[in-house]
Recover the amino acids of this structure.
């Protein structure tokens, strides 16, 4: 689960890391009082989870109140359905540092990554001048040792006072990484101000989804989703993305679902939604179809090839769902795997025509979608 | 022959008395797997499928020679179960758990390295040598997928593996050993780390890897081939090529891999060492034929 | 620092471990209301830090109110200056288990120790039937793993329900061990009640003194000390024990001080107090002498042989202390080590007669004490 | 010759810019110790006693060959400093810190074992080979104690060591190498683990150990002698024999050691293998003579 900037910064502040003065607003009316707290110039920052906000015009520097009002108004009307905007003081910046903790799957360690050339072009830097990014492996049994934090902080050629603060910040941020079971915690940029203070200019915190059972502080809210279907899927823990195409996918297994997605595109079709009801969700055919039916589409394509996710169970679920939901569009089924024979019987008894080849099922769905 | 597991491999099952544990133990044995006992705390003295159950792996190894442990244990207890198996000296461990916390998976992989052990998974169906033996949850009786043959398969996916393997079989091939390394960001063992076993397995004539976007495991495979450590034909299938990018891992993902990990990178790396990358599952069989892999 | 039973049990309860119903009283007047809460029969338990309380009559089972009043009255008048008594419900006991966590200095691990033959004779059991005590090493990097707790709990031949509870208790008690930087945490006996519950019948918790800087919850109080001198020494962190003999020891270095203690006894003398002002306290001669002078003694014997604890600094401190405190009894000095020459000059200039041989100094002190 | 340290041993000093660090660095060098550099974060570029200072051990080992590290670091930072030295590949570490948290000392000793390194301390003055070299805080110039000779000394105490060593010198002997293993309940290295070095040191003709009540380190020494792993004469001094028992460690202390650890146990164990136990410091020299240890 990815937190919003304002949430990540709240976590940082609790960990002892300085953040800019800021106020979170949910409509333009709250701007005036926010500006009184924050002062001018300020930065108007849309709270969305996508990256590249600056380049997309979702983060704007506003020297005057007029500009702040104009930008805030514009952003609250944006297509992205921005719900929250952070009004933040503009900090006097001397330097921008990149700091992140993540895991290294190859070496099986944590990883502290730091560069004194932080900012928006850090990914480019990783490719062109990887030596400018320091990577320090962390034995997760011991955690980040102070000597490592010190070693990295003092190796950057910064003034001693800044290095000292940076060492402390590494240790604080590592605590966040650990306490929040983070896949990633990142400050980019970390500002070095004119008076040598360190302030987190931005904040990313991605909590490992597998650890969410013990990470209960931040939960997704309905307002975090673009559509009702997405929200409902999230409540069920069913991976789901909504698009604009014709074919609603209701497949089992992430790899298979994306492969079907590929095949539809190869064959000239378009996708209305991605829905993956495999693994722990294979008994949720009813709910899955309910969600798929909320999305405008011309056909629903069901492809599975399950092992633990048994074909007979999924077939029965689909048949039950059809009976209960009485779908308004055709359904193509390609269900294989454990207890396939029983599945086929179940589907046939409900009047469905089982297909056994994925490409054939894809072509059939495209035909139906195109009304051929 | 096979790699990782055969009928001599003595297997214990941690979590044998659970629903999944007992169900798949039956099927593992039915295939011919040499399951010797099971472990569930508090159930010592019971039997499952005629096998004795012990309170701990320690008790089990005191009574049986055990080469490998199969875990049917929920994700949040997986690290503990892995540590228990390692502590008892077991060097091959398969965990199918889907949902192991990331930081724990890092510790699991580290512990495995420290113990010179191999962990397969989590988030996988396990390892199967068709018609011989398996550790995991494969419906081995589906001939359309689990046909014995000479192709080694390694995969990060579940259902997609069946899809691709069915195509390999349809093309007239069969599988020597299939290893599901698992779909988690940190699998216990990586593609490249199994290549050596496939290289040394006389039965395996070629290897198919079923990869994913993200990470650099396919690039690592290419490196092994480039080094000459793996010399057999290799075909890869990568799903999700046209899919929109999901939530990006900040900048960090790209920085960790130094900008590697895109589909283009993977294809370039693999093609550069003579491996082929299939666009569709169906083409995997076609490419094996193109590479001259014999069907017998 | 060793906690009292009632404190240890408070810690256990916070960790989720069941303890008997109990009320802590500080005088006999509080007994009646305590008995109302706890009920009869009950156990009257003196809160003192020494072991073997049962055999010493400091823990008494009282079936009636009359006996409870009598025993409580007796104990509050005891020579040991008992300040607090725990009035505790009498639990129906089916079995007594021994459970402890400590460290293994040889293997460099933590150590879980368990025996189903808990109770007062556990030390004897350790010698005669060591196989009856299970010792499970714990890698402190990982902590006690649940599988270890389970493995030990289920190996004891107890009913499954008890084993399950015991596994949980091990994990809870390990958390106490870790969180409190314990040298030792021990439950002996851990009661298995008639209805298969686990209840901590006693509790020992010794916090590592070197970790006290971060263990701030429990602090020693004046009432924990037998004499003002002991309390003052503790405030200064100066190791000090008061006895009944003639010679007040004011030495530097624990090993040297105990050796001097031995030598005094070998030579037929007696010791009034043990005071060790070496290590970090070597500049505290003034305070040390002040404390020694509070103890009735006939002579003060100062023996040092310091390296970092410099002889000249200690000599100067002693001379200053003598000037300021004007001691009412003779002082024998045997001060050697770093900057010994300067030390000798300092002592001589203050009219003291430095001795260089410890045994000679000891004999001199004994002579003075005996008024020879 | 000597053990652990001689004039070829290249030593770095962690915490060199502190008061203790700079003071004892001077004295170490004055004795002849080959100190090559120091480490204090943020002080890189400075000099102490003419030696370069680095921000980290990593930076130091990049510039110098380093065999051993001497720590003048407060107790609560000791684990970190030890881990830093180990991480940089240093295999001999001495820490004088008094007050290292117990659980951290366990981790330190464990890490040392894992790295095949030797940690001396904490709560000690360190290691000295009189007239040759030292790592620690010994007033090496006090001839009455630090006289060169052929007796190896190992001790858990500070001032008492001076007392006993002065008696050894008074008896006409001198010291080959003195190792203060330290007074903490969990020292980095134990008496018995150094015996092998003394056994192999041609200069050492006998060993004196200055022990304490509690623990089983003296019993371990006796075991080594019984096994034949140490064959030179050995005299022990144990202080505190008549002292009242302090706070007991619950029952656990006795259980850990299986009831061993009393003065009587120690004396019985040592006498049983031909070692002598002195009642008074003065008798240590006498007993060395009794065992026929030559003075030259």
């Amino acid at each position: 689960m990815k937190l919003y900037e304002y949430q990540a910064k709240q976590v940082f502040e609790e960990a002892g890391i300085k953040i800019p003065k800021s106020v979170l607003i949910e409509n333009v009316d709250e701007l005036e009082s926010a500006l009184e707290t924050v002062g001018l110039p300020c930065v108007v920052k849309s709270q969305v989870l996508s990256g590249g906000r600056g380049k997309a015009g979702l983060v704007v520097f506003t020297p005057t109140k007029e500009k702040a009002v104009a930008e805030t108004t514009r952003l609250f009307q944006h297509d992205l359905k921005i719900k929250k905007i952070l009004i933040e003081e503009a900090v006097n910046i001397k330097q921008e540092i990149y700091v992140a903790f993540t895991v290294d799957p190859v070496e099986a360690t944590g990883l502290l990554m730091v560069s004194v050339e932080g900012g928006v072009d850090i990914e480019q830097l990783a490719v062109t001048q990887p030596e400018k990014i320091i990577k320090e492996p962390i034995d997760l049994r011991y955690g980040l040792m102070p000597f490592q934090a010190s070693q990295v902080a003092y190796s950057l050629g910064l003034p001693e006072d800044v290095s000292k603060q940076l060492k402390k910040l590494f240790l604080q941020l590592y605590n966040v990484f650990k306490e929040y079971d983070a896949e990633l915690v990142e400050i980019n940029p970390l500002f070095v101000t004119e008076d040598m203070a360190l302030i987190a200019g931005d904040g990313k915190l991605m909590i490992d989804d597998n650890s969410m059972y013990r990470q209960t502080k931040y939960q997704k809210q309905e307002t975090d989703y673009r559509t009702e279907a997405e929200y409902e899927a999230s409540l069920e823990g069913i991976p789901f993305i909504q698009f604009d195409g014709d074919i609603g996918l209701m497949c089992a297994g992430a790899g298979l679902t994306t492969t079907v997605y590929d095949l539809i595109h190869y064959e000239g079709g378009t996708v209305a939604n991605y829905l993956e009801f495999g693994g722990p969700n294979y008994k949720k055919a009813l709910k899955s179809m309910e969600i798929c039916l909320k999305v405008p589409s011309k056909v629903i394509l069901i492809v599975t090839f399950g092992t633990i996710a048994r074909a007979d169970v999924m077939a029965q679920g689909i048949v039950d769902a059809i009976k209960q939901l009485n779908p308004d569009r055709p359904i193509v089924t390609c269900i294989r795997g454990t207890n396939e024979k029983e599945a086929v019987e179940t589907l046939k008894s409900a009047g469905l025509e089982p297909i056994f080849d994925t490409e054939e099922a894809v072509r059939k769905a495209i035909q139906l979608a195109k009304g051929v | 022959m096979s790699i990782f597991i055969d009928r001599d491999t003595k297997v214990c099952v941690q979590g044998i008395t659970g629903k999944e544990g007992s169900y798949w133990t039956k099927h593992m044995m039915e295939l011919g797997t040499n399951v010797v006992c099971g472990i569930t705390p508090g159930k010592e003295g019971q039997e499952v499928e005629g096998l004795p159950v012990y309170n701990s792996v320690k008790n089990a190894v005191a009574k049986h020679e055990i080469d490998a442990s199969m875990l049917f244990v929920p994700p949040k207890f997986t690290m503990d179960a892995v540590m228990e198996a390692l502590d008892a000296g077991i060097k091959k461990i398969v965990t199918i758990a889907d949902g192991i916390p990331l930081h724990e998976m890092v510790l699991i992989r580290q512990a495995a390295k420290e113990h010179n052990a191999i962990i397969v998974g989590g988030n996988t169906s396990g390892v199967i040598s068709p018609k011989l033996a398996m550790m995991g949850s494969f419906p081995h009786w589906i001939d359309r997928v689990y046909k014995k043959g000479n192709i080694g398969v390694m995969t990060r996916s579940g259902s997609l593996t069946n899809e691709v393997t069915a195509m390999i079989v349809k093309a007239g091939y069969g599988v020597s050993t299939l290893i599901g390394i698992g779909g988690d960001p940190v699998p216990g063992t990586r593609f490249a780390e199994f290549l050596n076993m496939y290289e040394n397995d006389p039965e395996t004539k070629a290897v198919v890897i079923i990869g994913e976007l993200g990470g650099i495991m396919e690039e690592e495979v290419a490196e092994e081939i480039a080094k000459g450590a793996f010399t057999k034909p290799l075909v890869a299938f990568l799903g999700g090529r046209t899919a929109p990018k999901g939530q990006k891992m900040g900048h960090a993902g790209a920085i960790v891999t130094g900008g590697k990990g895109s589909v283009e990178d993977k294809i370039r790396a693999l093609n550069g060492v003579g491996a082929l990358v299939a666009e569709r599952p169906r083409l995997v069989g076609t490419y094996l034929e193109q590479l001259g892999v014999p069907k017998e």
The interface with chain D takes residues 142, 145-148, 150-151, 153-155, 160, 163-164, 167 of chain A (CB under 8 Å). Chain A has three domains: 21-89, 93-211, 228-369.
